């Protein structure tokens, strides 16, 4: 299970971002996780619950936005249904993953002291 | 609002980041890739389940390539040096990367492994990943190509069960094909159909490390990739 190392990387990235803005508390983080990213949202959540203690994210809610896999022809861009052979029957070209492999930190909401 | 000491308001600031969570690993992978390109070493990330025959394929590759290319390898292993020892015995200078509890190699581990290996004096570096069909697919190591070893004994539905792994594969080595006569329940066409539904450009070579079947096609594939890489470097120079 690699979700722990994903969470460690996430917390390090959030901490850098928070420090850059002089924030001491993070309230919410939003991530995008693609269906074909190799990361399981539920495992990510439980890893986050365990790892966030005594970090800047201790009180931060983790919002996971799932992204469905979408395959499309590399030329005509028509959608190739999931589970089908990954080749466009019209253009006879391989499909491309248009979205669904994201492991992305989208947004961090932090509390910045007013100076 | 500061509720404890009344020192003034705090602002809730939303910051849009839009960055890969594994950006640090991506940086490391880019760094490794630059090294490999500079030194003209073709790096192959070899993945697959435990027991899929990754080490056996490499042993057979060493035998088939004897006297032509200089090979080196690093092997990711949770707890032992067995694979690296086997590869050394087969004549491939090898370095074991003991990952402890980690189920995959990452770019940093590979970079550290490179310091222990005379990889610069070789043409081809095999990075034998930890036996696992899930986690290794997530981490870019800086390789030129991903190759997945899939044994016919693993069942017909592995590609559909592990789409993330097969999506990242540039080539699948269908291993242990010498066992097919003993496996009447396994239909190779079903395995290949699963690959066509998970790999946009399915590319499969049937091999047996025991009989040597298909090793010539595998070596041809490697040679074509290396020639293409060298041509690309020459074109840029």
The radius of gyration over CA of chain A amounts to: 18 Å
Structural class of chain B: alpha/beta
Counted by DSSP, the helix tally of chain A is 2
What's the helix-strand series of chain B? Answer: EHEHEHEHEEHHEHEH
Shape category of chain A: elongated
Give the helices and strands of chain A as they follow along the chain: HEHEEEEE
CATH arch. level architecture of the domain at 3-67 and 100-111 in chain A: 2-Layer Sandwich
Short description:
The complex is a heterodimer of chains A (115) and B (237). Chain A is an alpha+beta fold and 115 residues long.
Q: How would you describe the overall organization of this protein?
A:
The complex is a heterodimer of chains A (115) and B (237). By secondary structure, chain A is an alpha+beta fold. Chain A has a domain at 3-67 and 100-111: hypothetical protein PF0899 fold, CATH 3.30.2320. Chain A contains 2 helices and 6 strands, in the order αβαβββββ. In chain A, α1 crosses α2 (41-51). Chain A is elongated and about 60 Å long. Chain A starts with a helix and ends with a strand. The mean pLDDT of chain A is 94. Chain B is of the alpha/beta class and 237 residues long. Chain B has one domain (23-228): Rossmann fold (3-Layer(aba) Sandwich), CATH 3.40.50. The N and C termini of chain B lie far apart (60 Å). The model of chain B has no long low-confidence stretch (mean pLDDT 93). Classes of the chains: A alpha+beta (115), B alpha/beta (237). The A-B interface holds A 1-2, 5-6, 9-10, 12-13, 17, 21, 23, 27, 31, 36-39, 71, 83-87, 94-97, 101, 103-114 and B 2, 7-25, 102-104, 106, 134-135, 137-139, 163-165, 167, 193, 196-201.
Give descriptors for this structure.
heterodimer, A: alpha+beta, hypothetical protein PF0899 fold, 3-stranded mixed beta sheet, 6 strands, elongated, B: 237 residues, Rossmann fold, 7-stranded parallel beta sheet, 8 strands
Question: Topology, pairings included?
Answer:
The complex is a heterodimer of chains A (115) and B (237).
Chain A: H1 3-20, E1 25-34, H2 41-51, E2 61-67, E3 70-73, E4 79-80, E5 95-99, E6 103-113
Parallel strand pairs in A: 1-2
Antiparallel strand pairs in A: 1-6, 3-4, 3-5
Chain B: E1 10-20, H1 23-38, E2 42-48, H2 54-64, E3 71-77, H3 82-89, E4 94-98, H4 107-114, E5 124-128, E6 145-151, H5 158-161, H6 163-168, E7 171-175, H7 188-196, E8 204-206, H8 215-236
Parallel strand pairs in B: 2-5, 2-6, 3-4, 3-5, 6-7, 7-8
Helix pairs in contact in B: 1-4
């Amino acid at each position: 299970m690699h979700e722990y190392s994903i969470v460690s990387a996430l917390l390090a990235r959030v901490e850098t971002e928070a420090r850059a803005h002089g924030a001491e508390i993070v309230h919410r983080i939003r991530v995008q996780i693609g269906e074909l990213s190799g990361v399981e949202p539920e495992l990510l959540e439980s890893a986050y619950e365990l790892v966030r203690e005594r970090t800047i994210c201790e009180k931060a809610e983790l919002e996971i936005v799932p992204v469905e896999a979408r395959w499309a022809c590399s030329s005509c861009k028509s959608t190739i249904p999931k589970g089908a052979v990954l080749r466009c029957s019209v253009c006879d070209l391989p499909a491309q993953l248009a979205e669904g492999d994201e492991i992305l930190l989208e947004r961090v909401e932090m509390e910045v002291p007013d100076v | 609002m500061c509720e404890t000491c009344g020192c003034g308001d705090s602002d809730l600031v939303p910051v849009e980041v839009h960055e890969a969570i594994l950006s640090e690993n991506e940086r490391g992978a880019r760094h490794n890739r630059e090294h490999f390109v500079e030194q003209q070493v073709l790096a192959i990330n070899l993945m697959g389940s435990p027991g899929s025959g990754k080490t056996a394929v490499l042993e057979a590759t060493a035998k088939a390539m004897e006297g032509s290319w200089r090979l080196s390898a690093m092997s990711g292993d949770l707890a032992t040096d067995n694979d690296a020892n086997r590869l050394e015995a087969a004549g491939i200078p090898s370095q074991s990367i003991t990952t402890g509890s980690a189920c995959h190699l990452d770019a940093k581990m590979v970079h550290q492994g490179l310091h222990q290996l005379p990889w610069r004096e070789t043409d081809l570096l095999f990075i034998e990943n930890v036996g696992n069909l899930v986690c290794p697919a997530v981490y870019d190591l800086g390789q030129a190509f991903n190759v997945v070893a899939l044994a016919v004994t693993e069942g017909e539905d592995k590609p559909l069960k592990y789409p993330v792994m097969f999506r990242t594969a540039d080539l699948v080595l269908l291993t242990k094909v010498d066992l097919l006569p003993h496996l009447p329940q396994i239909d190779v066409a079903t395995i290949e159909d699963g690959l066509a539904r998970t790999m946009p450009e399915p590319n499969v070579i049937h091999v047996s490390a025991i009989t040597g079947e298909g090793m010539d096609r595998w070596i041809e594939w490697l040679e074509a990739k290396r020639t293409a890489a060298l041509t690309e470097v020459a074109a840029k120079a």
